[in-house]
Amino acid sequence: MEQLPLFVLLMYALYEGLLHAFEADHVLAVTNIVSQRNKIIPALKDGVCWGLGHTSTIFLIGIIILLFKVNIPDRMFAYFEAMVGLMLILVASYRLYVFFRKERLEIHTHAHEHAGENKHPHVHVHLKG
Questions:
Q1: Tally of domains within the chain
Q2: β-pair partners for 106
């Protein structure tokens, strides 16, 4: 089989990298990091640093696998996915904790009706700011 040109391989790697970057765990992680900032430049710096750190880790592991011909058994990937799932739960729990610690919810009810009939209580939830 003929070898593919380097450009084609690099474009395929970029495509796969972009698909990987928009997976839920990455979006959650970056959102969690950059949402701590009030200005765009510090948020961009945080996002770029996270991306470079993530990329360099994947690159290093890839180099180790290629140089030392390390084989990761398929059954190990289930453990990796479980660790990612646990990380997502922890990050989401932390964000919920921070949200409810800082924000105060105001809940109230009032009468609500449809076309002048069928009055019933209606609940509203607002953030106190």
A1: 2
A2: 126
Q: Are residues 49 and 5 in the same domain?
A: yes
For 34-93, the pLDDT digits (tens) are: 888 889 999 899 888 888 888 888 889 889 888 999 888 888 888 988 998 898 888 888
Please tell me the distance from the alpha carbon of residue 30 to that of residue 46, in angstroms, as a whole number.
8
- Residue 24's Cβ-side half-sphere holds a number of Cα atoms within 13 Å equal to 9
Phi, psi of 109 (to 5 degrees): -125, 155
Q: How far is CA 48 from CA 22, 37, 61, 78, 126, in A?
A: 15, 14, 20, 29, 34
Residues 62 and 100 in one domain: no
Domain identity same for 48 and 105: no
Where among 71, 95, 117 does a domain terminate?
71
